[in-house]
Amino acid sequence: MLTDVLWREGWLKPLSIESLPNDSCSVCKKDFENLDFITSCEFCDIGLSHDSCCNSHLIKSHIDQIEAKIEKHKEKKLHSFQ
Description:
By secondary structure, the chain is α+β, with helices and mostly antiparallel strands.
């Protein structure tokens, strides 16, 4: 059986809390702290969340969409820089 992993783009964009639409995680509701990794869901408008919270949200709330995306991109290779 093949194992599928989900690739997240590997770039960092430092942001100030003051520039964000919310200063707490949309999933766990905890305030963002210095050097927290944050992201947003690509399937819904839940808002910004901790990276790990978003991972859990994706698996819990969007498994069908993730599986469809896996099937759509199954045969695509990574670029040489990835």
